[in-house]
Amino acid sequence: MGISEERAGYLENLCRQFRIDVITQLYAVQTGHPGGSLSVCEILTALYFEKARNNPQNPNDPGRDRIILSKGHAAPMLYRILAERGYFPADDLKTLRQFGSHLQGHPCSHGTKGVEVPTGPLGLGLGVAVGKALSLQLDKNPAYVYCILGDGELNEGTIWESAMSASKFKLDNLIVIVDRNHVQLDGTDEEIMPLLDLGKKFDAFGFRTFSCEGHSIADICDTIDRAKDVRSMPSVIIAETVKGKGVSYMEGQNAWHGNPINSQYFERAIKELEATH
Ligand SMILES: Cc1ncc(C[n+]2csc(CCOP(=O)(O)OP(=O)(O)O)c2C)c(N)n1
Ligand SMILES: [Mg+2]
């Protein structure tokens, strides 16, 4: 299947605009999470625009694939992408994180079309994903469940309890994607809690493990295709990414996990993003 070079290029160009818009929104509200929003951009774009079945005209379509952004702090990028897909008007993005807005700091499915599950407290999304995948199998519904985890989030014990259940129930309709940017809130994964050989870890928990270049739309799409062919076990895609991708002073820096952006930094970020091709 794969994706044409032209289409991948189109989507990567769209990602550049998503980054510019998210930085602009975060600058305007002086709060929110730039680093993890920038790293997950291509993963979410590949899913919502190419690989996951989703229908903005009928967000609760029973045949939809379920996309769970377990690292809920990357909500600004999710919202930007949902607006582009047409789940709600782009004008709503101006209300990000403001009182009364449906676009809260962390995603909430009650008020925001396209949000599958409320997330924010790390470690919970995979358990919900396992439950959804199991119920789809019992219903003989061929939809897939995609669950996007942060790598710092893997420090949570609930992730590994959920992973054991996923393999016990042979959930081949579950595809986990790890945003492997090697950085969390207070430092690098290595400094806070080393994950060691993550691929081997997931193998040992009964997953089929893939890795991909997490800023390449083509590589993400190809790897999702391969994961969809796996039978009788869950899959994980370890997507190698860069926290703060696209803004040089944010890249790989935990300080930009959730820092407000001042005017000098804002101008630099926009200049750099506009200059990328
Ligand atoms: C249970 C819980 N503990 C702590 C936090 C605060 N917190 C928010 S994001 C974050 C770091 C997450 O790092 P990672 O999963 O690597 O996300 P990314 O690098 O993709 O932003 C922390 C500790 C939280 N949201 N939930
Ligand atoms: Mg991380």
TrEMBL record:
<keyword id="KW-0786">Thiamine pyrophosphate</keyword>
<dbReference type="InterPro" id="IPR005474">
    <property type="entry name" value="Transketolase_N"/>
</dbReference>
<feature type="domain" description="Transketolase N-terminal">
    <location>
        <begin position="17"/>
        <end position="264"/>
    </location>
</feature>
<dbReference type="Pfam" id="PF00456">
    <property type="entry name" value="Transketolase_N"/>
</dbReference>
<comment type="similarity">
    <text>Belongs to the transketolase family.</text>
</comment>
<protein>
    <submittedName>
        <fullName>Transketolase</fullName>
    </submittedName>
</protein>
<dbReference type="InterPro" id="IPR029061">
    <property type="entry name" value="THDP-binding"/>
</dbReference>
